[in-house]
Automatic annotation (TrEMBL):
Organism for this UniProt entry: Solibaculum mannosilyticum
Descriptive protein name: histidine kinase
Entries under InterPro entries matching the protein: HAMP_dom (IPR003660), HATPase_C_sf (IPR036890), HATPase_dom (IPR003594), His_kinase_dom (IPR005467), HisK_dim/P_dom (IPR003661), HisK_dim/P_sf (IPR036097), HssS/ArlS-like (IPR050398), Sig_transdc_His_kin-like_C (IPR004358)
Molecular function per GO: ATP binding; phosphorelay sensor kinase activity
Keywords, in A-Z order: ATP-binding, Cell membrane, Kinase, Membrane, Nucleotide-binding, Phosphoprotein, Transferase, Transmembrane, Transmembrane helix, Two-component regulatory system
Length: 482
């Protein structure tokens, strides 16, 4: 359908317009050529008539006998009788003599004579017609008498064949027609090649796009032209590559999330089955089992909440409750939450809390979520004996919070994509791959920025910047939606 559609539009719009223009030009040129050559014949007859007229004018007022004898002598002296028939017309409008030597054909139309009779000025007339033999001729008539005597309408008439002229006009028009046909053929050939150079790649692009839509992300287009079609091929190939990468990350994400959900569920199920038999459970074991169930349930809740946040961000439904807050309070609470984990995992947690920082306008729960998520990542990617440092300060009307760890770090090739959804640089550590994407979006909604600097094998620095509340922001909006 695409091939047919493009070709039809080209034929109707492009070729049809060119053909119409050429037809109009051909008809116009044919008319101009015919008018030019017929005009040349008319001018030639006009000059010949006026050079010959004096030989007959002197007999215009003579008697019929003298007129006939004088005109017969003038006809014999006419030099161009081989090419032009010269006729003498009597006062009654009937041809009397002819330069051919034969009696004139009185059955011929005499429109030129009638025109000369009815003209009040130069008393001449001309016309073109076909003889009874079918020959196309032009006739030119001039009255001999210059007086207003309507009884004396003697005239001479010249008749010349238009066959050579028509043949010349036909040859020229045929040449013009051949040129027009050649132009049409050239347009068709060049247009067909051009249309083919568009339609064929478009058809291939369509076929490849359908393969990609069906899940074949390895399908690629071969770039043949360094133009818009080539750019489109590059775009389709890039799209397939990105879809392939996203599909792989999505599968990794599903696998990771499944693993993240399975681990706490397995622990909860195991301890639940154990606690179902009271005879086998002592108080200490019961307490330990319930502690594991509660902690793993909280872990599951965190994973589900993270997924819900991600869904809200993707659909644009995340709502922030904005108010003036002390960001140090939220940061301090987040650090306190990880003190026990720090001791349990033998990772040093250092927090250098400043005495005071300006307030910010933000959602306290979401900002705490940001700090908790970043700290959780720092612990996940740090080994026992490592160190995590938290610093906060004001720089250029921005509250800057830096969370640094001495963990495994992020490879340089992964660093530019580390905040993308589903992307995980290290698959050996637990995590869904959407935490940083959620955190980055929350920080952006607060008008801030999230930067990550890392060196593989050395550690990672996460820099969070949130703008300081303006003095006039006494009544900040309660809710902001992305």
């Amino acid at each position: 359908m695409a091939v047919k559609g493009i070709t039809q539009r080209w034929v109707l719009n492009g070729l049809g317009l060119i053909l119409a223009i050429l037809v109009v030009l051909e008809l116009g040129m044919a008319f101009i050529v015919r008018s030019y050559y017929y005009g040349e014949v008319y001018d030639s007859l006009n000059r010949l008539m006026w050079s010959t007229l004096d030989s007959f004018t002197k007999y215009a007022e003579s008697s019929d006998a003298e007129f006939r004898i004088g005109c017969q002598q003038a006809l014999e002296n006419f030099q161009l009788k081989e090419n032009v028939e010269l006729m003498v017309i009597g006062s009654d409008g009937v041809p009397l003599l002819s330069s051919t030597g034969f009696p004139p054909d009185t059955s011929q139309p005499m429109d030129d004579y009638e025109t000369a009779k009815n003209s009040n000025g130069n008393r001449i007339g001309s016309t073109e017609f076909n003889l009874t033999s079918g020959e196309h001729v032009m006739a030119y008539t001039a009255l001999l008498s210059r007086s207003e005597n309507t009884q004396n309408l003697r005239a001479i008439r010249m008749v010349v064949s238009l066959e050579p002229t028509d043949q010349q006009v036909f040859i020229i028009v045929a040449i013009l027609l051949a040129v027009g046909i050649a132009i049409i053929l050239f347009v068709i050939m060049s247009g067909s090649y051009f249309i083919s150079s568009i339609v064929t790649p478009v058809r291939n692009i369509g076929q490849t796009a359908r393969r990609i839509a069906l899940g074949d992300f390895d399908a690629r287009l071969q770039k043949k032209y360094d133009d818009e079609i080539g750019d489109l091929c590059d775009t389709i190939n890039y799209m397939a590559s990105e879809l392939s990468t996203n599909e792989r990350m999505k599968n990794d994400f599903i696998s990771s999330v499944s693993h993240e959900l399975r681990t706490p569920l397995t622990a909860i199920k195991g301890w639940g089955e154990t606690l179902m038999d009271p005879s086998l459970v002592d108080p200490e074991t019961f307490q330990k089992g319930m502690s594991v169930i509660v902690s793993e349930s909280e872990r599951l809740s965190g994973i589900v909440e993270e997924l819900l946040d991600f869904s809200r961000i993707q659909s644009g439904r995340m709502t922030l409750k904005m108010e003036r807050i002390d960001i140090l309070a939220e940061l301090g609470e987040a650090v306190v939450m990880f003190r026990e984990r720090s001791r349990r995992e033998n990772i040093e947690l250092l927090y250098h809390e400043p005495e005071i920082l300006p307030p910010v306008v933000g959602d306290r729960n979401r900002l705490k979520q940001v700090f908790v998520n970043i700290l959780d990542n720092a612990f996940k990617y740090s080994d026992p004996g490592g160190r995590i440092r938290v610093d906060a300060c004001e720089i250029n009307c921005m509250i800057q919070v830096v969370i640094s760890d001495s963990g495994c770090g992020i490879p340089a090739k992964d660093l530019p994509r580390i905040k993308e959804k589903f992307y995980k640089a290290n698959h050996t550590r637990r995590g869904s791959g959407i935490g940083l994407a959620v955190v980055d979006e929350i920080v952006s909604l607060h008008g801030g920025s999230l930067d990550i600097r890392s060196t593989e094998g050395v550690g990672t620095d996460v820099i969070i910047r949130i703008p300081v509340a303006k003095m006039e922001s006494d009544n900040p909006p309660e809710q902001i939606q992305p």
